[in-house]
Amino acid sequence: MTERMLQFVELSQKLPEKRSAEERKKDFGEIYQGFARARAEEQASRCSQCGIPFCSVHCPLGNNIPDWLKLTAENRLQDAYAMSAATNTFPEICGRICPQDRLCEGNCVINKGFESVTIGAVERFVTENAFAEGWVQPVLPDYELGRSVGVVGSGPAGLACAERLRRQGYEVHVYERQDRVGGLLTYGIPSFKLEKDVVERRWKLLEAQGVIFHLSTPIGSGEGETTLADLRTRHHAVFLGTGVYRSRAIDVPGSELGGVVDAIDFLTASNRRGYHEDPGNDVALHAKGRRVIVIGGGDTAMDCVRTSIRQGAAEVVCVYRRDRANMPGSRQEVYNAEEEGARFEWLAAPDAFLGSEHVSGVRVQKMRLGTPDATGRRSIEATGQHAIVEGDLVIRALGFDPEDLPGQWNEPDLAVTRWGTLKVPPRGFETSLPGVFAGGDIVRGASLVVWAIKDGRDAADAIHAAFENGSLMGQDALEA
Ligand code: FAD
Ligand code: SF4
Ligand code: SF4
After folding, report:
1. What is the pTM of this model?
2. Which of 10, 17, 146, 431 matches a 20 to 30 Å C-alpha distance to 326?
3. What sequence ranges are listed for the domain Dihydroprymidine dehydrogenase (predicted)?
4. Assigned CATH topology for domain 249-396
5. Residue 261: strand, helix, or coil
6. Across-strand partners of 240?
């Protein structure tokens, strides 16, 4: 059947249909349509079935991409789904929001001369088709192991860990401080990239599998709060997947002015409105009719820009201190933002927020590019020239650092790195507290969904291995 493959010479790359900028900026629906079956099969057949598949090497999950592409091209869609799901807990989510241009597709060998196989879109199709066919079912354990694990945080790391442990027979309790499951999938990433029913569908499946969720349950050390120490007595092992939520500050005059807000507050409020909730402080965190200035050059900044446009902002300007070629965010997202009407102010570093009580603009220092650093990224230096960008809503999107977990949880022995992320051994997951494991952003720093899934899965395997080799307590020890 190999003749079905290697079609990249005959068939050109076709991306999923994208809604026009005019249409999509009126709502929060996803901007890309899924592939139809015939298109998915055709595009999968472009794969050249490499002996050393660099796509898989550069997929954090090591997905068996050429194999499920071939199965898709052969219309063996149930097998394709089974193979895809074997290495990825949430393939339909990765297919939508992985930065494929930096991972699998960016390393597809037919890029040299031809355009890459549309791996992400096929991955999304395979799982969406499996849901439609009823093939995606909760994997119930064959027997209960009589061991319980507490998972803190219901982002992709926590959910992937919970799913993998539950299918092996662990009793799994997920503790989440928010009122919904999903972490940044629910309250960070806007629904024009990932619609919320995609996340809710997984939440329901996990419940059907027997994972027990404790929502609106922050783990902490405040009055009435469940503590990490409580969890360590309640469960045989604990996994921490709490993510990173401390917004990076910008130390310039005027930071305290009204109308200067953090990206996570703005995006959370917007996502809550998507659930028809009033997030409170609606005026402060809504861009309708405002002249919005977003500060930052990463994907969070692009999400704020594009959310503002959909909320009906009068104008949206993104201010970034480097240039287009040296920004950390995905090129595609910048392109999408420009299509939707955003303006970019490159090589501009804010040095004051202007205004008396409410912000009226940002004074920026104009920068120029210097020599590349060790990573090849160009340094920047000030030119001494200034400019003023006018606006009445300023959104700081400068990235995230970890919260002070040892301090907030009164756990001084929980070791952290100099960046405040939880310390685990290289390629390991157990923290300095025995039986307490961690993964995802709280270990890596702000990263990607696919890496969080990888960590959650691998940490679950590490917990299971620790039980098997006797380094974690069994049920008897807990009851003693
Ligand atoms: P999170 O998703 O942050 O989940 C952590 C969970 O822990 C949260 O639900 C939180 O409420 C809970 N929690 C924290 N502390 C406690 C506590 N004390 N008690 C109980 N619960 C607690 N990645 C991509 O791959 N593609 C993208 O397009 C993309 N877009 C992004 C857009 C934005 C705006 C942001 C902010 C990030 C984006 N990312 C994207 C990054 C991605 O969302 C994260 O890397 C990923 O969600 C990390 O997963 P996690 O499970 O480690 O943490
Ligand atoms: Fe590509 Fe992400 Fe899917 Fe891996 S998980 S194949 S990197 S889209
Ligand atoms: Fe197919 Fe590209 Fe992967 Fe090669 S690198 S196996 S052509 S998807």
Report:
1. 0.95
2. 17
3. 24-134
4. FAD/NAD(P)-binding domain (3.50.50)
5. strand
6. 152, 438
Cβ-based neighbour number of residue 205 at 10 Å:
17
Integer Cα distance of 424 and 435 in angstroms? 12
Residue type, 12: S
Tens of pLDDT, residue by residue over 40-90, are: 888 999 999 999 999 999 999 999 999 999 999 999 999 999 999 999 999
The whole-angstrom separation of Cα 353 and Cα 43 is 49
148 close to 235: Cβ distance less than 8 angstroms:
yes
Listed in sequence order, the residues at least 6 apart from 388 whose beta carbon sits closer than 8 Å to its beta carbon are 354, 361, 362, 363, 364
Say if residue 42 is exposed, middle or buried (CB neighbours under 10 Å; 0-12, 13-18, 19+): middle
Distance from C-alpha of 81 to C-alpha of 125, rounded to nearest angstrom: 9
Q: Which of 449, 454, 455, 458 to mutate to test the pocket of ligand 1 (most atoms within 8 A of CB)?
A: 449
ipTM tops the 0.90 cut: yes
Domain ranges of the chain: 2-133, 148-244+402-479, 249-396
What pLDDT, in 10s, does the model give residues 221-279? 999 999 999 999 999 999 999 999 999 989 899 999 999 999 999 999 999 999 988 77
Q: Which residues line ligand 2 (CB under 6 A)?
A: 59, 61, 63, 65, 88, 94-95, 98, 100, 103-104, 119-120, 123, 450
Q: What is the distance between the alpha carbons of residues 143 and 215, in angstroms, rounded to a whole number?
A: 26
CATH fold for domain 148-244+402-479: FAD/NAD(P)-binding domain (3.50.50)
Question: Considering Cα of 175, then 177, then 179, then 180, what sign does the dihedral take?
Answer: negative
Cα separation of 210 and 139, whole Å?
10
Could you tell me if the CB of 303 is within 6 A of ligand 1?
A: yes
